[in-house]
Write a structure and sequence with these properties.
This protein is mainly α. The protein contains 12 helices and 6 strands.
Length: 363
């Protein structure tokens, strides 16, 4: 339960005790201390360091000009700050990334990689890492399977110079021609280690280390009443009281379910049917203040726009029936609470070099 200080602060500053919600620990939770790993891919130092280098190496892309890190960069909370990502043919990272108008764009917003180690974790418990749902539409499970998706996608890393059925063989051949990679793959996986399967395992092992720690919210949930400011406590209770936590629940602030929402389309963008029924996954709110813009298509530039959309637009999911109001105390309190789930520390390391000799993260 809330400590006496927490209850007193909320009661005093919310203006009435009717606003107090049940113990937040009944709906939300701190991040676990242990990251789940598949039995066949334990996070060994050799595997993780190999994965880090591969994550930053543009050699994995068809034209050698884009890396995993290009669209999932630590400077932008391991997202890219764009509505939808610019794939091969682009230059730079983040909101300033540009490209020839004919260069491919993806159709969806790049979600942060920071919490994917726990994908599927909800108030109902964890799922096995090989069953963890990935992407906005849950089309694959496990980080290992997710890794290969962008590499084989023409709009993301493959481009059009290498055929889809040839890109993985091409990438493996490139890696096998670089002695340092051969040595590192053998150290991680044994003789003959340079394979597409092991490539995916290495990057997945590295991504499982990208976890935010020691956020204000996690310290508060562990019993430190002073970890949140009075305004953040109001925002926390407003978040639950107004129904946000019906979908944004558990340690990752996601139920990991697919929902249909009325989200505005970006001008000129094709209709995106999500899982085929116009449904998309509830995104985690961890690091949310670092990863604008929002929604599956990046159509909402700010958190204020997100609040307005829920307040004003029709919703089709039963969990969201009725008007959605901002928290008591105003949207400012809610955003301040979001700061408390976005202030955890995380690995921002950018390698000085990668074994291919290409610029880490792309040109």
């Amino acid at each position: 339960m809330l400590g006496p200080a927490g209850v007193a602060v909320v009661a005093l500053l919310a203006g009435c005790t009717d606003y107090l919600t049940p113990d937040p620990r009944e709906t939300l939770a701190a991040l676990p201390s242990v990251v789940p790993e598949p039995a066949d891919n334990p996070g060994r130092p050799e595997t993780i360091e190999l994965g880090r280098l591969l994550y930053w190496d543009p050699i994995l892309s068809g034209d050698r000009d884009i890396a995993c890190a290009t669209c999932h960069h630590p400077e932008f909370g391991y997202s890219d700050g764009l509505a939808v990502s610019v794939g091969t043919g682009g230059r730079g990272v983040g909101p300033a990334r540009d490209a020839d108008p004919a260069a491919p764009r993806t159709s969806r917003n790049a979600q942060t990689v920071l919490v994917t180690a726990w994908n599927g974790l909800s108030v109902d418990g964890a799922v096995a890492p090989e069953l963890a749902p990935m992407f906005w539409d849950h089309r694959v499970t496990s980080l290992e399977a997710q890794v290969l998706g962008p590499i084989t996608s023409a709009a993301e890393m493959r481009g059009t110079t290498v055929a889809e059925d040839q890109i993985l063989d091409e990438v493996v051949a490139r890696l096998g021609a670089i002695p340092e990679y051969v040595t590192r793959f053998e150290a991680a996986f044994g003789a003959g280690g340079v394979t597409a399967t092991n490539l995916a395992k290495a990057i997945a092992a590295f991504e499982r280390t990208l976890v935010p720690t020691n956020s204000s919210f996690d310290r508060y949930m562990a019993g430190d009443d002073d970890a949140l400011t009075p305004a953040q406590i109001r925002g926390l209770h407003g978040f639950i009281y107004q129904g946000c936590a019906r979908c944004h629940s558990g340690p990752l602030f996601s139920d990991f379910q697919l929902h249909e929402l009325a989200i505005p389309s970006r001008p000129g963008a094709p209709v995106d049917l999500g899982d085929g029924q116009r449904r998309f996954r509830t995104p985690s709110l961890r690091m949310v203040t670092l990863t604008a813009p929002y929604m599956h298509n990046g159509a909402l530039a700010t958190l204020g726009a997100v609040f307005d959309n829920y307040h004003n637009n029709r919703v089709t999911d039963p969990l969201l029936e009725g008007d959605v109001e901002v928290a008591v105390g105003g949207a400012d309190d809610l955003i301040l609470f979001f700061d408390a789930i976005s202030d955890g520390t995380f690995d921002r390391t950018i390698p000085a070099r990668v074994p291919s000799g290409l610029p880490p993260g792309g040109p």
